[in-house]
TrEMBL record:
GO terms for biological process: phosphorelay signal transduction system. Pfam families: Response_reg. Coiled coil: none annotated. This is Response regulator. It comes from the Bacteria. InterPro entries: CheY-like_superfamily, NreC/VraR/RcsB-like_REC, Sig_transdc_resp-reg_receiver, WalR-like. The lineage of its organism: Bacteria, Bacillati, Actinomycetota, Rubrobacteria, Rubrobacterales. The modification 4-aspartylphosphate is found at residue 56. SMART domains: REC. The keyword Transport does not apply. The keyword Nucleus does not apply.
Length: 129
């Protein structure tokens, strides 16, 4: 099984996108979280079994960058895709510095999101070889 973590506070968006990712990519099992605290709990419970994390920067209880830093420290092999509404360059720079591999804004098309996930998966496969 290839797992991913989706941390997004808008539940309908999170659930719909998670389902599409499972249908359209090789990632077939998800863990979902709507807050920073829940994302941290899910990350600790999954214990090295996720390949990709999709993280929103604007969470109701904190900054997604904090979770990205934790992922980078505890799960360095996990590829991180930021999917966010913000367009602030400083927030992008902070997330890249924390370990983000790719950033898309939420107005990206579904195809763009899926292509980004496939790129991250392909890069992960190459690094294993």
């Amino acid at each position: 099984m290839r797992r991913f973590l989706m941390v997004e506070d808008h539940s309908a968006f999170r659930q719909a996108l998670s389902q599409v990712i499972k249908w359209k990519t090789e990632l077939d099992e998800d863990a979902q979280a709507g807050t920073l605290a829940e994302g941290r709990r899910r990350l600790s419970m999954l214990d090295g079994s996720i390949e990709v994390a999709v993280v929103d920067l604007g969470l109701p209880d904190g900054n997604g960058v904090d979770l990205i830093e934790e992922i980078s420290e505890t799960e360095p092999d996990v590829a991180v895709l930021v999917l966010t509404e913000t367009r602030h360059r400083e927030r992008f720079a902070d997330s890249l510095g924390a370990g983000t591999h790719e950033i898309l804004t939420k107005d990206a098309s579904l195809d763009e999101i899926l292509q980004a996930l496939r790129r991250l998966g392909a890069a992960k496969e190459r690094s294993k070889a």
